[in-house]
Fold this protein.
Amino acid sequence: MLAALDGRGAPKLLARGVDAEGPWLMMEHIPFPSLASRSLSEPNPALVLAFAAPALEALAAIHEASDARGPLEVVHGDVSPDNLLLRRATDMRDSVDDARLVDFGLATFRDGRGIPSSALRGTPRYIAPEVARGEPATAQGDLFSLGLTFLHAASGFPARLGDALPSVIQRAGEESVIPYAEHASRALPAALRDALLAMVAFEPAARPATARQAWRPGSW
């Protein structure tokens, strides 16, 4: 899958093989810090405004990737602050804000074996309701997870609190996060706020069809 993506929204696969210790692969080093490495305990709406478009662009590149045989049908399956790498531009003459997604261990794609339906897929605080209920992960599920990821950064606290994993998963599958999202997004511009609220709709059909449709401020 990484070879087919060829760096689109993800690390590039540089080499792979088998030696005496088993299979190995070498991936491109992406020197961006993760969103989780920043302080998520304080509201940071400016960070969300800076990186919402690059992150959606990275997710769109993954979802839209194709080869000579057609769409790759990649679904990341675990979008979260740990798996979103962000680069802040330091010199606007030479650099722009950028984002990449990493850790495709739970991803599915056209040519791969699917994750068993009984397996827990994703980070419980950020998974979509249908995924929490054991339904297949989809691009709309990735959008939901990205929306909750950015709402956490905007507000300084996650949608789903508590340490008991079964309880977090149960609430994820049964409870809408819209009341949380409305509060968490108060400091964001109206257009981005509306986009994030749509991304975290409880029903997949109510979310944008693609990352490209979710929010497009004109730069991509």
User: Anything to note?
Assistant: Residues 91-95 have pLDDT under 50 and may be disordered.
